[in-house]
Design a protein that fits this description.
Low-confidence stretches: none
Mean pLDDT: 92
Radius of gyration: 11 Å
Helix content: over 70%
Number of helices: 3
Strand content: under 5%
Oligomer: single chain
Distance between the termini: 23 Å
Largest sheet: none
Shape: elongated
Number of strands: 0
Order of helices and strands: HHH
Length: 52
């Protein structure tokens, strides 16, 4: 399980810099790792919005 706070940091950096590659560079991680964090954040969002 990836750290959710890092996922949120990747999200904000991607919004600021315009891409996941740039977000990864800004945070000192590879674009692949930035993508993994975004995927994990997306999974969490889907879980939160799934009806009970």
């Amino acid at each position: 399980m990836l750290d959710r706070f890092t996922g949120m940091r990747v999200f904000t950096q991607a919004a600021t810099h315009g891409s996941l590659s740039a977000a990864g560079r800004a945070l000192g991680m590879s674009p692949a790792m930035a993508t993994k964090h975004m995927d994990a954040l997306d999974d969490l969002t889907q879980q939160l919005w799934t009806p009970l």
